[in-house]
From TrEMBL:
Keywords, alphabetical: Cell membrane, G-protein coupled receptor, Glycoprotein, Membrane, Receptor, Transducer, Transmembrane, Transmembrane helix
Record-given protein name: P2Y purinoceptor 8
Gene Ontology biological process: phospholipase C-activating G protein-coupled receptor signaling pathway; positive regulation of Rho protein signal transduction
Organism: Liparis tanakae
Keyword Nucleotide-binding (UniProt): no
Compartment(s) where it occurs, according to its Swiss-Prot or TrEMBL record: Cell membrane
GO MF annotations in UniProt: G protein-coupled receptor activity
Topology term for the membrane: Multi-pass membrane protein
Keyword Transmembrane annotated: yes
Transmembrane segments: 26-51, 63-83, 103-121, 142-162, 192-217, 237-263, 275-296
SUPFAM superfamilies, alphabetized: Family A G protein-coupled receptor-like (SSF81321)
Assigned protein family: Belongs to the G-protein coupled receptor 1 family.
Domain of life: Eukaryota
InterPro entries xrefs: GPCR_Rhodpsn, GPCR_Rhodpsn_7TM
Length: 347
């Protein structure tokens, strides 16, 4: 919610009800605890496989490493959010840690969105535009620069959150909140607020969502005319997971953020309870990302099977499968072996 920093500030009924609802706080904390356990386990294993066991580092692998970094950062921040919830929305770690935790939350969301878009574009070029892809394949150095650019864009948009004290004293409840009461004077004018919301919702979410959807729908249409049913099934599963992350994890939070802020600024109404719950569910993307890696990268699948000893295929069967995937999985450009797997080699 938004409020002024004046001493006469009063909570709206919706936000007060949220702060006083112990059951909601416990439920959100339980979800965060489950997400933290799955996040750190799944993404910790993914990071080890991607960094130390997967080679060569193709552009898609680099994008997946970038995605894993943001997920692990969220996993490290969630315990602080759990403690905050269980203490009745009282933040005792100071303004700096509040800013760090808030920025980590939103950086994870929007870096994930942009990284999934990059992976979708990579798959689109490799499957739908293979001729042009061979000539314009993204180099590893460009992939690294793209990841740095993503972080730069996201942090630039989130700059107001990085430079503002996001804690707020609520004397009537005896608590200090963290990003649950957002000061109206964080930005100087309503135009600045409009630009901030537009950048977050439309630039960092809606546009990448449209691009990602176009890429995966185009890939599915292309593969629907192909007889390689195994590859087709895998890429459809990948597209389903990616679009699930967008629609279930990211879309509700961004839509409610826009609606709540507009209602609060202009009509003195609130959707904060729904927004708070959507922010909680947005963290589930970090649990689904390892599944994206599995369906996106042949190398990742093979290394994972080696680690957990799931060699269900004989060497002959494996060779047959490798040959079956070879059309999409690899190509030689200038003597360098590059992976062009159906899924990003990753949402």
């Amino acid at each position: 919610m938004t409020g002024n920093s004046s001493g006469g500030f009063k909570l709206d009924n919706t936000t007060r009800a949220l702060f006083l609802n112990a059951n909601t706080s416990i439920a959100i904390s339980v979800i965060y605890a489950i997400v933290t356990a799955i996040n750190l386990t799944g993404n910790g294993l993914s990071m080890w496989l991607l960094v130390f066991r997967t080679s060569p580092k193709t552009p898609s692998i680099i994008f997946m490493i970038n995605l894993t970094v943001t997920d692990l950062a969220l996993g490290a921040a969630l315990p602080f959010q759990i403690a905050y919830q269980l203490q009745g929305y009282h933040w005792s770690l100071g303004p700096l840690m509040c800013r760090v935790m808030t920025v980590v939350f939103y950086t994870n969301m929007y870096c994930s969105v942009l990284t999934m878009m990059a992976i979708g574009i990579d798959r689109y070029l490799g499957i739908v535009r293979p001729i042009q892809f061979r000539q314009t394949r993204v180099k590893k150095s460009i992939a690294v620069c793209s990841c740095l650019l993503m972080w730069g864009v996201v942090l630039s948009v989130l700059w107001p959150l990085m430079t503002t004290d996001l804690t707020f004293d609520v004397p009537e409840l005896g608590i200090t909140t963290c990003f649950d009461v957002l000061k109206k004077d964080m930005l100087p004018t309503q135009s600045a607020w409009a630009a901030f919301l537009f950048s977050m919702v439309f630039v960092l979410f809606f546009f990448p969502f449209c691009v990602t959807t176009f890429c995966y729908v185009s890939v599915i249409r292309k593969l629907s005319r192909d007889s390689k049913t195994a590859q087709k099934r895998r890429v459809i599963l990948l597209a389903f997971i990616v679009l699930l992350v967008f629609t279930f994890c990211f879309a509700p939070n961004n839509i409610l953020l826009l609606a709540h802020t507009v209602l609060r600024l202009f009509y003195d109404e609130s959707l904060y309870m729904a927004y708070k719950l959507s922010l909680c569910f947005s963290c589930l993307n970090s649990c689904l990302d390892p599944f994206i890696y599995y369906f996106a990268s042949k190398d990742f699948r093979q290394k994972l099977r080696e680690v957990i000893n799931l060699h269900s295929l004989s060497s002959t069967d494996s060779m047959k499968m490798d040959r079956k995937e070879s059309f999409y999985s690899s190509a030689h450009y200038g003597g360098e072996h590059r992976h062009v797997s159906l899924m990003p080699s990753t949402p």
